[in-house]
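Hey, I'm writing a tutorial for new members on how sequence and structure tokens pair up, and I'd like a real worked example in the thread rather than a made-up one. If someone can provide the structure for the chain below, I'll link this post from the tutorial.
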Amino acid sequence: MEKSLVMIVDDDAVFNNTLSAAVKKMGYHVLQVYSATEASNILFNQQIKPELLICDVNMPQKSGFDLLKEVIVKNSNIRVCMISGDNERANRLASLQLGAVDFISKPIEMEKINETVSKLLNQPSV
């Protein structure tokens, strides 16, 4: 059985690498992306469709919220989990209202990532 593709979008390279390593260790394919603009290009121009998109809220130029809105409008089959280190309650609420399926606060415990990724990738497609 083919393992799911998870796209990780975070401008913090160290965090992106750490999160990617944890998801790869679970046996999933990972595509690391460092900006919402780059993620948009990959998703909508190159037509690469991950089953799960893990996206930071706060990034330069284009926010994770902007990317989330695009994904919901253009392809609602991609599950989106937002992550953020500030304004936890406000960001969590906004993420879920915009269509994210989950929200994780930074700093993130790898056990929480394992639990969330497993849960979201084992749900039936929306």
